[in-house]
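Worked Example 4.2. Consider the chain below.
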Amino acid sequence: MNEIAPHQVDVMVLGAGPGGYVAAVRARQLGFTVAIVEGQWWGGVCLNVGCIPTKALVHNAEVADLVTRHGADYGLGGHVTVDYSVGWRRSRDVADRMAKGVRHLMKKNGITAIDGWGTFTGPHSITVIQADGVTSEWVFKYAIIATGARPKGLPGVAVGGPVMTYEQLIMAEKLPKSLVVAGSGALGVEFASVAASFGVDVTIVECLGQLVPQEDEAIGKELARAFKNRGITIYTGAAVKSVRAGHKVRVTVEPSGGGERIELRAEALLLALGFEPNTGGFGLDAVGVKLDDRGFIVTDDVMRTGVANIFAVGDVTGKMMLAHVAQRQGVIAAEAIAALRPEPIDYDSMPRATYSAPQIASVGLTAQQGKQRGYDVKVSRFPFAANGKAQAMGETVGFALLVTDAAHGEILGAHLIGADATEMLPELVLAKTWDLTAEEIASTVHAHPTLSEVVKGAAEGAVGHAIDL
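Applying the procedure from the previous section yields the following structure tokens:
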């Protein structure tokens, strides 16, 4: 009996998240034949249970806040109720449409899309077990690994019932009446913010000394003030020591420096403790793909692993776990395969966006990081309260903060917290990427009235002539 010859393709992509599907499309644009394998979610966590449905829920939460807490300010009278389940169904519709869009992109670009699980059998070969049970063999010239990451757990704590990760919570049609959030990174504060808008009693536990510990200290303090004003309870410098789960949860919290333990009781616990890479079961050891001490795939500046024809992009590399970074990495990997010599990513110039209320947006170095790198740091801040558009919107919480190099005026970092802060990032990313100065931003005319004038105000402050403050 004759053996069936393996399928042949130029580029094989494992994983159809933001990094994988973008890499596949770019490789196809460059003239390669491409196949992509996805075992669960076309569009990845981001489109299905992450960025996109979360932002739909965030918008619902903004509307809920407006009509229930501030309705009288806008002439909205009478008894108003909000139904989370309606917004939840809308979020699922949005996610489903976006995921179908990724499948359409594969078809439109002539990419072979396979539902299944791929395992390397050699540096140029892979076995795919398809969702229908059929096994197929593939050979390729190049491979791009984009298998993503999964939520970290808490040792000794099983996920299930009232103990959830973002995946269980975002797929639940109803919110619990009370919620403890372990961890205050972007994911933790976004879910805390949404839940609070729908009347959930929310408590955040963060082991480090501030909320959103990857952000500038001033941002963490401002977010804490805003959250406390919204009725959210916050414990920083405190770690979850034990969890007892039944119909509800009991969470024991201990201050990091020692002290009396606190027991929190709630209907649910959200584990928002970060992520670990999906590297098991893909045969990476069979081809010699190296992992770092955290378990992430090691790559060079153009996303090539230690195996010359195999690349890795996205969260599985652990470089900067953001969808837009994964997308850029996917483009770079495809262009490196085509020998186009793509420009490596400057991770200091990658934007970061958190969709809490208020929003957080940042790029580059914090003031402390700038000092650690030896810069003569200058910090300038301009409040939303001094901005005409913010006053007109009734959104006066927050500020824009610029970190500049006092010697040359160049932007080292920018940090914003306030209404629609994430929409103001492009100007600042451009400035950081191309070494623009605070003076050049200050001399750029910003339309009036716009929220972006807070950026101009901070830049004017940095060069010593703030006008509206």
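The chain is about 30% helix and 25% strand. The longest helix spans residues 84-108. Compare this with Example 4.1 before moving on.
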